[in-house]
Design brief:
By secondary structure, the chain is an alpha/beta fold. It folds into two domains: about 15-165 and about 270-355, Aminopeptidase; about 165-265, Alpha-Beta Plaits. It is about 30% helix and about 25% strand. The chain has helices spanning about 15-20, 30-45, 100-115, 135-140, 185-205, 245-255, 275-285, 300-310, 335-355; strands at about 45-50, 55-60, 65-75, 85, 90, 120-125, 145-150, 160-165, 165-175, 215-225, 230-235, 260-265, 270, 295, 315, 330-335. The strands form four sheets. It has a six-stranded mixed sheet with strand order 1-2-6-3-7-15, with helices on both faces. Strand 1 and strand 2 form a beta hairpin. The longest helix is centred in the C-terminal third of the chain and has 23 residues, at about 335-355. The two termini are about 30 Å apart.
Length: about 375
């Protein structure tokens, strides 16, 4: 079925971003913002709808071309920040993380198709990214794109190549009632020993490596008494980390009668600089007279969820300073936002051309360039 192409883009993409930021969408309660986004994409000529997970999805372009998905997230962390525009600066929750990058994707897709890009573009405003990526986990079973751009703040001149993974676990231990004066181990003491052992195990692995390339544990919650103690631990893990082996080691040598429960595990992801999406973004940034800055992030994103399933070219891009994520100072420079729209529009043209040039019978996926 032929999908309608978006109408020529209006001169200023700021009203869409304002509409999104003014509509609260804390993770788990995104329906109002999803409706706004679907309505705005429909006006721009997308075939737009709400999918089974509650994601906002808009499709446009050549139905026979390579499929380029632009995956942003519409949810935010809690925080009732005043939405205020001061000249060319917009303040409010989600301006950076990540409604700015999401609105960038919508306008870039509309402009790219209006300019004749030969690709089918699928823009997604995913739900629950700030929770457990429920929206992205739904997508892996519903779509098979040929290339993927993740909407996260990289800065207008930045290209994010990868994100660390995460291993979240809970440790619980019990000990019989005892007087504080006795030498018997208390549950709190056992828990403290487990945390020290875990930290030492990870600290001994590539201690001189860059932060992205070594595991980083954090004790994010603790509670209990001498009879029962609980720890919540988050480990940011690098590419290639042997999560199963590490858990086996902890259970074999360091639990001391306690129980480990894995709450979340997501592998790290990283694209090479030769990745077609990376190359397209880099070329577009240079075209704007900027120097491309490749980046890797210590946190995680929906890229960690979908990239291992689809195994297609992927990188993250979007306006905004990621250091403002989740802070009370969250704001975005609207001049950067407009420049990011122009840059991503150019990148989509480069990417569509590169996906269409992979020769048939080359031993690669004919559209993605990824080995079969």
């Amino acid at each position: 079925m032929n999908r309608p192409s978006p109408a020529p883009a209006a001169p200023d993409p700021v009203p869409l971003l304002l509409d999104l930021v003014r509509t609260p969408s804390v993770s788990g309660d995104e329906r109002a913002a999803v409706r706004v986004l679907v309505d705005r994409m429909t006006v721009l000529g997308f075939t737009a709808y709400v999918d089974g997970a509650g994601n906002a999805v808009g499709e446009c372009g050549d139905p026979d071309g390579p499929v380029i998905m632009l995956l942003g997230h519409i949810d935010t962390v809690p925080g009732d920040l005043p939405v205020e525009r001061r000249g060319e600066v917009l303040h409010g929750r989600g301006t950076v993380d990540a409604k700015g990058p999401l609105a960038t994707m919508v306008w870039a897709a509309a402009r790219a198709v209006a300019a004749g890009v030969r690709a089918r573009l699928v823009v997604v405003g995913a739900v629950e990214e700030e929770a457990l990526s429920g929206g992205a986990r739904h997508l892996v079973h519903e779509h098979t794109p040929d290339a993927l751009v993740i909407g996260e703040p990289s800065g207008v001149d930045g290209v994010v190549l990868g994100y660390k993974g995460i291993l979240r676990l809970r440790y619980e231990v019990e000990r019989p009632p005892a007087h504080t004066s006795t030498p018997e181990e208390k549950a709190t003491e056992v828990a403290a020993g487990f945390w020290a052992a875990l930290r030492d195990e990870l600290g001994a692995r590539d201690p001189e490596a860059a932060l992205f390339d070594r595991p980083l544990p954090a004790l994010v919650g603790m509670g209990g008494d001498i009879e029962h103690a609980t720890l919540d631990i988050s480990c940011r893990i690098p590419p290639g980390f042997d999560t199963d082996g590490f858990l086996d080691l902890l259970r074999r040598e360091h639990t001391n009668g306690g129980l480990i429960t894995v709450l979340e595990r997501t592998d790290a992801v990283r694209s090479p600089r030769t990745d077609p999406v990376v190359r397209a973004l880099t070329a577009a940034i240079r075209k704007r007279g900027l120097r491309p800055v490749p980046k890797v992030k210590l946190g995680s994103s929906d890229m960690n969820v979908v990239a291992p399933h689809w195994r297609v070219p992927v990188a993250a891009y979007g306006p905004g300073d990621a250091r403002l994520d989740h802070t009370d100072q969250e704001h975005i420079d609207l001049r950067e936002y407009r420049l990011a729209v122009d840059t991503l529009t150019d990148a989509l043209g480069h990417l569509a051309d590169s996906l269409g040039r992979v020769p048939a019978g080359s031993g690669e996926n004919e559209r993605t360039g990824v080995p079969r």
